[in-house]
Amino acid sequence: MFLVRFRGACKVHSLNINYTNANVLKKDTIFTCKTQNLIFFKNLYSTKNVKIEDSGNEVRELRVRFAPSPTGKLHLGGLRTALYNYLFARKHKGKFVLRIEDTDRDGLAYKCYCSSSTLEEIRNKALKEGRIPVYDKRCSMLNKDKINSLENEGKPYTIRLKCPSDTNIVNDRVYGTIKMGAAQQDDAVLIKSDGTPTYHLAHPVDDHLMKITHVFRGEEWLPSTPKHLAIYRGLGWEPPIYVHLPLLFNTNKTKLSKRTGDVDVDSYRKKGYLPEAILNFVAFLGWTPKNNSKEILSLDELSEMEPPLSRPSL
Predict the structure, then answer these.
(1) Which end of the chain has the least Cβ crowding within 10 Å, N or C?
(2) 165 and 131 inside one domain
(3) 290 catalytic, yes or no?
């Protein structure tokens, strides 16, 4: 089952044009669009759902999501992440959710009054000293009188999450158990100065409310996972199972980006590449299925050859 959901204003549904392919409009499709707290949906088919067990022995439905931000066109790396989510959900008869992460607008947390110039100074100092640039927590040590004074002045602030002071352990289905020291972790900004949530806060909340059980995403989010786990713990929620996929690189060994280069999916379609060819190309980037003699596989065949959730050979 396929779900599409937008957070925030979706600009009169124009995002459907960019992120929805008419080829997926089949009988097993559900589309939902949340705009200004109104939910529009169309249920085209009802199917039996497979249930999974969580640590509390509560039966839950298997749900995955692909959550791109509308900051550019979809590139091949994003398409591969979406495809792996879809194949995993399809094989296990779960649900695949497409959620547009539109957060870009004109006790465990604290107010941070640091300006952009102050943050830049902190970053430059860390780089000069050979340290990982992380926020130095100066605003977490402000006393109540100082905070009241800054509030009376009307000084703008963000809200940061206090990073755990001990070693963070992340269990990932691809990279295994990873330990990250506190010195490597930053106090993430949860609320911007204009009152809107950042990705670090919005995505755990959305995943919990949408009952997401497995999160497939790019390896670049692995260092941020302790922040997201801290939010789950702070809110008393059970986190999903994380699956971080290896990054795709250009020939010059730079990370594939939707903002640079001719790598967006739409450009390949305009050049005449068939959808089946593009899907097979990205499906086998970093994965070679065993006992496969066919050159081109359908989605049904790909879903029966679920990519192994183990550390890739690099």
Answers:
(1) C
(2) yes
(3) no
